[in-house]
Structures
1.
Amino acid sequence: MLGTIRAFWNDQRGIAMILVAIMLPVLIGFALLAIDMSRASGLHNDLQKGIDAYALAAAAELDGRSDSITRADRAIDNLLTNSTKFSTSDDHTLARADLTIKYLTGIPASDSILLSAAGVDGDGVNWASTDPKAVSFAEVTVNPSGVADGAGAFATIFPASFIGSKDTIDIQPQAVAGFVQSICETVPIFMCNPFETTDPLTSKTIQQAFASGDTYSREFRILKVDSNPGPGNFGLLDNGLTSIQEGMAKGTAGTCYNRNSLTSKTGVTLGQVNTGLNVRFDLYQGSLKNNTDLGYRPASNVRKGADKTSNCNKYTVATDGSAFPLPDGTGYDSATGMTLPIPSNSFWTAYWAANHKNAAYPSIPAATDPLKRTNVPASRYDVYNYEIAAGIVGDKSKGPSNEVGTPACFKGDLTKADPSRRLMNMAIIDCKANQAKLNGHTAVKPDGYASVFLNSPIQKQNAKDDDDPEGTGAEKPISLEIVDVDGGFANNTLVDKAFRNEAQLYR
């Protein structure tokens, strides 16, 4: 009996079947898990690509205008109409209810700092906002299966319910994209915001001032200072050029500036600013004589009220009434650096009679008034454009000046003269609030950008310095008008031509 038992105990025939019977469920389980993990990875990749696309589409609309969030939501809705089926759970089609979308004013510096469902980070900073003018990031997340329809949930092959778990897996990819705006066509100087005050109740951004009509037809005079800049001043920006003169002449800084960050530049550049700007008026001074570079071409209308002694490299204003530049404004306020708006059509009487054969002023429309008013006089820029459109740039002024507005001094191709050459884009900075940052190569966020029109050439303060225009003699202020600004209140001419809008994934 014992021998029989011992023989049975030592008999190993058929043991493989037993081991296979025991291990088969385990092997099948691991195989199913591998298949499920592969499917989960594929679904995650598909969902992540979709969520990336939604975040980028939304972020591309966050340009700071009042309808930016509305447009961002619409962009996502348009993509959702593709009806892509992302889930194997009930053959699910991705819908808006499957997504959580938050708009953020910024994101934490580190990827390890996560935001709560409300958009608050671990330090208690709330990044979420519903203000369309403040947000610049879009965060898109796929909801888990317990929220709405659960687009990221799919049924597993592995029967997890046998071990007390769910037979679905939640996939929750997330993407954060931001709106990046840069400007590539701007001179390497900034202008202090003339509407900034120390009182938040009265201070205005340049966009607010433009939208309310406060900038229209005013003359702004800005002067370079090296310390304590404020309204009525301008300063320099870091750039990619060999000289400030090149940037002034060509209207570009030689680099693209981030819309939200500029770096100021110190140093005295007297002589480079005025000679660079004056090429637009067909004045080629100092080393710019006999220039043929098309980047230095004149404007189509270079009338500037020059007397009979002026020439291609020296500008003197006529004082005998035989020629008039675009007139200065009245009521100049040195605290803000600007004049009053043009009061009436009689403002143009002397200018028109002197430069256009004693003709009566034709009551030119206020074409660039942001409020589209019909009862206000034309601005200097309106008159400048009217002279070009009416074909009267070549009219001679009274003698002995006999000035005409057609350029004649440029040594290059004069057929390339351009009406927009007296326009340039310029950063506007709140100099009172950022005074400490403007003299030490420190990054500062601009208040905005403006398209400005040059009213007249820039001269030296002292007549004796006119013989050395590129020298260090003090310059008179730059006289200009503001024609357009960036942002939701603008006419959008500056944005369309100068800004580069891009959306970029961050997380």
2.
Amino acid sequence: MDRYHLTLTIGSRPVMRGWWSDEATAERKYLQWIGERSGVEGTRITLTDEADGGRLLKSWPDER
């Protein structure tokens, strides 16, 4: 099983998912997805660590 899980949702609907075993690859994809879809209203992208109980590593847009 790949460790790093990337999810793209638009509105409340999951549109795309990806899993990678390498964190650097997952982070590159995370940034790529932001670049490709940042102009779409309602877009949310999350990167989680599935080996750590699904811990959220990154989220875009930042909700702070």
3.
Amino acid sequence: MDSEDLIDELRRIGARYGGVPGTVLPTRPDVIIVRAGSVVVKAHAPGAEREPLVERMRATAHPALRGIMLEPVTEEVMTAGDRLVTVWPAGTPVDHADPDAAPWEAAARLLARLHAVPARALPPLRAAGGPARVAATVARLGDRYAAELAVRRAFTCLPSLSPSGTNPPGTNPPGTNPPGTNPPGANPGGSPGTAPDGPSGTNPGGPAGTAPHGSSGTAPGGPHGTPPGGFYGTAPGGLTHGDWHMGQMVRAPGEWILIDIDDLGVGDQAWDLSRPAAWFAAGLLEPEVWHRFLGAYRAAGGIAVPPDGDPWERLEIPAQAMTVQLAAAAVAAARREGRPLDGVEEVLVESCLRIVRHRSACHSVPTQ
């Protein structure tokens, strides 16, 4: 099914549930969204697996997540050509053109409420998809260019993101230390600029490569560090969104609520704070905004970080992993479009180089 046929089929589904002709909404390249009156119809990314999505739809419709996650119009997972399709109530997204209106406190409270729901209270869910997304994004890179090698090398400096203790094929280029190591680390680093998917209320003039206030600058090894099992992102028992950012919230009808279940599952709940943590550590998010977000999360009883004191013992590795993911996606996009890196993309690559420089186990590895 080509794209026009797919869109026509999504419009037919939209008319069935929304009663009016549908309009295609802008979104990321691998997903198609059609709005039809009071509903939106989503064609999930190519290759999405049916059973995990069915499980996530069932969990999202459970009463325990009411008022936290947007409830689907129907739990049915449909097909259009080779794409899986779901139907949701329409909502009003965050206005990225109005940074002062970004609902940081509302987001923090929703995440705290999500994290408080015991996974055992829901229909069974698989591992959250966030860590796997990092590895998959890096795996799409080549190894011919300096930017690609920089991102790959930063990735291999992180603890393994897979349960087996090894990262997917293609993510460990020659000349880097093997996946699964956990050397002392530092903050993601950064330079003035604006990151893709950046938050409303960024600070382009922030410090470059400096640790956030209160950070130890080292990868933790204690009870709040790498989760049990020796790899990041698979701590048992914690319900997590898996891919949270400001684009994953809508007003429906009058209250903010979380959307997008593609990575919902069980894992390390600190992952859900990784994007704003990475932006703040890189100097891209105003300190006042970060502290409002973190303070609201803690005040609501959020359990992904300690209730007081230094949060970076839990957030440092997730923030580094998110920095690598954003850089990998940016470099892959530039290569796909046949153009040089733009200023923002160069900032992300430089942030990866800072991760390498600050992780001492990588210092002795020869550069390819």
4.
Amino acid sequence: MRLRCAVLDDFQNIATTIADWTPLQDRVEVTSFTGHFATEDELAAAVAEFDIIVTLRERIPFRAGLLDRLPRLKLLIASGMRNSVIDYAAAERNGVTVCGTASSSTPPVELTWALLLGLARGIVPENNALRQGGPWQSTVGADLHGRRLGLLGLGKIGSRVAQVGLAFGMEVVAWSQNLTEERAEGAGVQRAASKEELLRTSDFVSVHLALSDRTRGLLGAPELALLKPTAYLVNTSRSALVDQDALLAVLREGRIAGAGVDVFDTEPLPAGHPLRTAPRLLATPHLGYVSQNNYRTYYGQAVEDIQAFLAGSPVRRLG
């Protein structure tokens, strides 16, 4: 009898076509789920009879309570090589091998600039007006050249965002709790003296930090109050880095020029969520990692992970 593999959150119904799954066809039956399971009970019921699960990024937490309810599960594959919502101890206790895949940082860099440019030049309202017979030119774009780009985080993604900013002729400054002068100089940017200075002086602020106990809620109401009324904020990193209620407040009150957001506390974002209708917000449904090359890598390496597991030599193990 073939093993059963569930591919979760395959929203675009592309997982089984963007990669070659034929090497598994004699041993594994693959089922793709194109919708998101809203509750743990729904998910547990749907995948209870599966031996292998392929999950997308950190969309679904695999805590002990869920893993305990999946007695047939033997292999859990997460896209990416870091996942903070899997209980690895519980997986080991339940005899579940956890593996990952490679993931490129290029797509989130590109999406960051798509949001920033879209905000700066009013792309969405101008496009809507043009298509709907509205006014010809209703916004005046914000210039990038000569303006200050403040980066919260200068890691793999932040440093690449910095290079694009420099190419646009922007003055780029960065801050994080561990950022050194040497690291900043190596990236060709200035090190801000403090988070507060960066927020007060930047025309565009982009967030590129890992979520941890130190960074959770890094931008709350007091921090957002430091931003210029003409400033734009972009977050393609983790939603919990920015207090969403505080962000909603500054957008509604017009205390910043706008925000670009790709990450949310609850995903998919509920239909009636206030962020869906917030003014001055350019929002995308967590597209940072969603690109053809990344998906080829995710699902192509998921096939490799399954093959290696069946051969008794798991690769790219996590935990």
